Q: What sequence folds into this?
């Protein structure tokens, strides 16, 4: 069976959260916010406003700036992707963590793909004991393509590891761009050696691991989160979405889940 997301352009509106994360990435490497945001028409103070909505093109401009000034850093896109946690995605993130298993969480992510910050196009295919996640980078500028593939794939794996860290999820990774001189960052994060220069970007996930029950699975909380996703305006920030959802689902969560949720920060 194959699941495909709708034919959406990567330039769909999105919350400013992702641009804030990447501006912080630049700052951590000594790049001023003004340089990160050059040409985006976004002021630095807007990064702190959870109500700001930006376009994919504005986020892409920021990525161009990062790559122009920091592209010499091995695995820069991976470093970006590691900053995306399930809390980053607001209502969608809560739906993911409350899902019965990671396969269900992946299906929910595909259904509400417009609530993510991905610039690649995801296609999910079930092939026996494996799940193949194809990350289509066509239409993206060549200069930033490898960064975006690294970021989107690293974010995918990072969230899955947060949900279920005791078993490996990623079984193989094919990347379409040439092998860089230094792949140590790739091997350290993915915990496997990617195959470079392939026809497409493809993450191979283990079905058995994806079917393992998630520790915070909660059917009622999942229903509330999905309802929020269905009615979620792009103007609503991930942080605001989480806070609104807490009021709706707190009473239906198990005590264990309440304790765990309360211990997690709302910030991305």
A:
């Amino acid at each position: 069976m194959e699941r495909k997301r709708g034919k959406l352009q990567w330039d769909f509106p999105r919350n400013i959260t992702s641009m804030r994360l990447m501006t912080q990435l630049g700052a951590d490497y000594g790049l001023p916010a003004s340089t990160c945001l050059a040409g985006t028409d976004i002021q630095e103070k807007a990064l702190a406003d959870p109500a700001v909505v930006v376009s994919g093109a504005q986020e892409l401009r920021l990525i161009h700036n990062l790559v122009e000034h920091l592209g010499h850093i091995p695995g820069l896109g991976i470093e970006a992707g590691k900053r995306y946690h399930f809390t980053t995605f607001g209502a969608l993130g809560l739906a993911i963590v409350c899902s019965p298993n990671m396969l269900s969480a992946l299906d929910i992510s595909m259904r509400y793909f417009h609530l993510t910050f991905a610039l690649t196009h995801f296609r999910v295919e079930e092939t026996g004991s494996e799940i193949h996640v194809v990350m289509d980078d066509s239409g993206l500028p060549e200069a930033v393509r490898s960064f975006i593939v690294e970021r989107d794939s690293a974010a995918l794996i990072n969230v899955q590891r947060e949900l279920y860290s005791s078993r490996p999820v990623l079984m193989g990774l094919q990347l379409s761009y040439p092998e860089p001189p230094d792949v140590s960052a790739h091997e350290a994060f993915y915990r496997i050696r990617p195959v470079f220069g392939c026809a497409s970007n493809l993450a191979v996930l283990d079905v058995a691991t994806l079917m393992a029950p998630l520790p915070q699975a909660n059917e009622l909380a999942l229903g509330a989160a999905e309802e929020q996703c269905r009615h979620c305006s792009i103007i609503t920030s991930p942080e605001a979405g989480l806070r609104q959802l807490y009021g709706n689902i707190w009473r239906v969560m198990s005590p264990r889940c309440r304790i765990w949720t309360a211990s997690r920060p709302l910030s991305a």
Summary: The beta strands are 2-4, 14-15, 53-54, 121-127, 130-136, 170-174, 202-206.
